[in-house]
Specification:
Layout (H helix, E strand, L loop, with lengths): L1 H7 L5 H12 L11 H9 L1
Length: 46
């Protein structure tokens, strides 16, 4: 019975799920960037 119920659940990527929930709640606005701006700039160039 458990397997039947599990198989009926949609397959969703966790990133898609987080984006959907964020659109409802806006929870990502509570996050801040921990790294300094200069570090982020050099990290993206590597």
């Amino acid at each position: 019975m458990r397997r039947v119920a599990y198989d009926r659940l949609p397959r969703v990527k966790i990133t898609d799920l987080l984006l959907e929930v964020d659109s409802w709640t806006g929870f990502s606005e509570c996050f801040t960037i921990a790294a300094p701006v200069a570090w982020r700039m050099t990290a993206t160039r590597s």
